[in-house]
């Protein structure tokens, strides 16, 4: 167990960029710098944290995709005051049967925290894991357990449905090599619900991202590949596994609607789904979009609309819903210091910068956020940067008070 050795607070003045040119201040506090715990050249606490955090009873859980004893990632917990604990270091034995390279999303479950690794397990196909203080770490399911990885490989995320079944996606494998949607029922039996790229030309999508349970009882998600225009899709999946493409990207002239959608959607108050694309849009640097369950799509914002991409570029995660119905998100590039931003978006599409990373000399406040911050139980935003900080520039955990 390690404790924070430094709290870095920044009051950001005159760095907020909005469509109207207004300015405001936001307070960002670095609550943990990775590579604080070392052994030789190893960062025992992890490095390159690129998962969304999960607030569980006021404690923040997350993963780092690198670092640890075997350099293949860690699972950690950090309090909002900065008290840090490495819960598990992946790949503890040869060939990593316990998993390697953890994924970007964690989920709350009946027995603790659940997540995935994209590697390790069987034939480096990745696995689902669970962790609790009482039961410790264990593997729930190892992918590529079926011949030819027919059950999927490289899992993306999991969540629980209202019946207690574990539902998720894998970005690769399956009977058509386009990934799978799967279920582990309450009896522990594994089922493939859908094999992506089942339709000629992969018009049903390939390489699915994370799922979200819609208010209509269906699951919604994105695929980063496939679709009618080979630029990714938004899809709907029934609990029984029937998949319908809701929207195929690059459907507009010069792909101003974007392409390569990021892995997670969020449902707004109006019932529509909101997300981001990594590329294309009006300025070739990604978009924020809205799509209705019926497939009506609107591009709400195209990144790099400002000179030198001062408004951000290349978002690598979707949006987070605030209590007032607005959204927060990140772009990993661009911004006032060219090292990424946190932004705010109203449902009407009014866009503004909340924070520009690398505002401190030496980028001690972090750079290159990989995933969007989440709202903690105290109402503040908490997130991670994949680089920056004052410990070999391998990432930070931060609190933002917008």
What would you note in describing this structure?
55% of the residues are buried. Helices cover 0% and strands 43% of the residues. With 402 residues, the chain is mainly beta. Strands 1-2-35-34-33 form a five-stranded antiparallel β-sheet, with no helix packed on it. Strands 5, 6, 7, 8 and 9 form a five-stranded antiparallel β-sheet that branches. It has strands at 8-12, 26-33, 38-39, 42-43, 47-49, 54-56, 59-66, 74-79, 84-89, 100-102, 107-109, 112-119, 127-132, 136-142, 153-160, 166-172, 180-184, 190-195, 206-208, 212-213, 219-225, 233-237, 243-248, 259-261, 266-267, 273-279, 287-291, 297-302, 320-321, 327-331, 341-345, 351-356, 374-375, 381-385, 396-401. The model is unreliable at 1-24 (pLDDT under 50). A hairpin with a 7-residue loop joins strand 7 and strand 8 (74-79). The two termini are 30 Å apart.
List its traits.
single chain, 402 residues, mainly beta, five-stranded antiparallel beta sheet, 0% helix, 43% strand, globular
Summarize the topology.
Blueprint: E1 8-12, E2 26-33, E3 38-39, E4 42-43, E5 47-49, E6 54-56, E7 59-66, E8 74-79, E9 84-89, E10 100-102, E11 107-109, E12 112-119, E13 127-132, E14 136-142, E15 153-160, E16 166-172, E17 180-184, E18 190-195, E19 206-208, E20 212-213, E21 219-225, E22 233-237, E23 243-248, E24 259-261, E25 266-267, E26 273-279, E27 287-291, E28 297-302, E29 320-321, E30 327-331, E31 341-345, E32 351-356, E33 374-375, E34 381-385, E35 396-401
Antiparallel strand pairs: 1-2, 2-35, 3-4, 5-7, 6-7, 7-8, 8-9, 10-12, 11-12, 12-13, 13-14, 15-16, 16-17, 17-18, 19-21, 20-21, 21-22, 22-23, 24-26, 25-26, 26-27, 27-28, 29-30, 30-31, 31-32, 33-34, 34-35
